[in-house]
């Protein structure tokens, strides 16, 4: 004897179908406008408007693109500028303003009894002017230093006496 389908199961199936349709069917545009019948003059105006928009877009693209420079930009290099030991705080500040004014990127500042100077990123062509300043003791090319050694005395991340390693 055939059993009668449960109405609750049918309503769940219907709900799932509706949800799937809502998810899969893209939403309709908000303006709900239909194509209108237009005369030839309106079509011509619409075409002219579209053409002027395309031209405006092309002009905006051309203005947004940077113009090609005649020579490639010189990449900055890292330098350590050490000032003389008798440099005052005011002289140090003035020299810092000179560095920034010449396009240097100051990475570190040093002003203590032992060391006065700066670690900077600077274009090499600008370096000579700073080297000739009477406040400058010397200028060194900056070098990256990194630790690449393996730890000693550790077994599986647990500290152990070296005799057990």
UniProtKB/TrEMBL annotation:
The UniProt record lists the keyword Membrane: no
Keywords: Signal
Membrane-spanning ranges: none
Record-linked InterPro entries: PBI_I9, S8pro/Inhibitor_I9_sf
SUPFAM superfamilies found in the cross-reference section: Protease propeptides/inhibitors
PANTHER family according to UniProt: PROTEASE B INHIBITOR 2 (PTHR28288:SF2)
Protein name (database record): Inhibitor I9 domain-containing protein
Origin species: Puccinia triticina (isolate 1-1 / race 1 (BBBD)) (Brown leaf rust fungus)
